[in-house]
Specification:
There is one protein chain. The chain is α+β, with helices and mostly antiparallel strands. The chain has one domain (5-99): Beta-grasp domain (Ubiquitin-like (UB roll)). 17% of the residues lie in helices and 27% in strands. The strands form 2 sheets. Strands 2-1-7-4-5 form a 5-stranded mixed sheet. The protein has a two-stranded antiparallel ribbon with strand order 3-6. It is globular. Bound molecules: FE2/S2 (inorganic) cluster. The site of FE2/S2 (inorganic) cluster (FES) has 14 residues, from loops.
């Protein structure tokens, strides 16, 4: 099969708004959102504040692996299983996401 640029396109879907975008595989989620005014909130952009926390409802295996630093930040801000930091994501295949809930601090 001959490679064409069209073959490397993937889709990012925002569950809450229904907004979806076709982007190149290997895209930084942070850079994509900044360039397209996409509906996701960021803070520090370097993985330490947790503002960008999200859950991948589909495509969790289509992004880069989590680092220990990302895991530490997520532990402070959410209890949701499978949460990720949007600013740390590289998207290699279709994903569907929603914002992760805040950590229950009773
Ligand atoms: S924007 Fe601060 S952790 Fe992602």
């Amino acid at each position: 099969m001959r490679y064409t640029p069209e073959m490397s396109k993937i889709r990012i879907t925002f569950l809450e708004t229904g907004a979806n975008y076709e982007v190149a595989a290997g895209t930084s989620f942070l850079e994509f959102c900044q360039e397209h005014d996409a509906p996701h909130e960021f803070g520090c952009t370097v993985g330490s504040c947790g503002t960008c926390r999200l859950v991948l409802e589909e495509g969790a295996d289509h992004v880069n692996a989590m680092t220990e630093e990302e895991q530490d930040t997520l532990y402070m801000v959410t209890d949701e299983h499978g949460a990720r930091l949007g600013c740390q994501l590289i998207v290699n295949g279709d994903i569907t996401l929603r914002r992760a809930k805040d950590k229950d601090v009773d």
